[in-house]
Design goal:
There is one protein chain. This protein is α+β, with helices and mostly antiparallel strands. The chain has two domains: 50 residues, no CATH class; 81 residues, no CATH class. It is 40% helix and 11% strand. The protein contains five helices and five strands. The strands form two sheets. Strands 3-2-4 form a three-stranded antiparallel beta sheet, with no helix packed on it. A two-stranded antiparallel sheet has the order 1-5. Strand 2 and strand 3 form a beta hairpin. The N and C termini lie far apart (37 Å).
Length: 159
């Protein structure tokens, strides 16, 4: 039976190591890519961030996928919140939408990350909004969200 190692990730979402507990030589107080502080625990509940799954029966570790939410409390990690905020700010900066549409977009972004029955509806609404903002803004939103939304949402919005 395997165990999860501890990951160290900066507040912007750059993984510095997925083996922080077993390979401390790879730890960084600040991210070498962006200079932001790194964390190994959820800021909300202080549970360790799950790193690579170490199984003695396997010969190699599978590719590590950074989590968007804490496995213990369900809250989004700082990099997830920052991505959501950046996407919302980018859409708001166009000046094309009223407060109601911006609030709905924010709710829809949250739904895109969770892969629920609401994901398809939210995907349709987000795709509609992106069709109204032009390619440059739409590509910017895609680049921000692609690492945090569910696979269902990715397929529904971007094919």
């Amino acid at each position: 039976m395997g165990i999860y190692r501890i990951a160290e990730i900066c507040l912007n979402g750059h993984v510095t190591t997925s083996l922080a507990d077993t390979m401390p030589q790879f730890r960084e107080n600040y991210c070498s890519r962006c200079g932001e502080a790194t964390i190994t625990k959820c800021p909300n509940c202080y549970a360790s961030i799950r790193g690579s799954y170490d199984d003695p029966e396997r010969l190699h570790l599978p590719k590590y996928n950074r989590p968007s939410f804490c496995h213990n409390c369900g809250k989004p990690f700082p990099w997830t919140e920052r991505s959501m905020q950046a996407a919302n700010e980018l859409i708001a900066s166009t000046g094309k939408f009223g407060e109601l549409e911006l609030t709905q977009f924010k709710t829809d972004i949250d739904s895109l990350m969770k892969d629920t029955p609401q994901t398809k509806v939210a995907s349709f609404r987000v795709k509609t909004i992106l069709g109204k903002v032009g390619k440059e803004i739409a590509f910017g939103v895609r680049d921000i969200l692609v690492d945090i939304v569910s696979e269902t949402a990715k397929k529904a919005i971007w094919g």
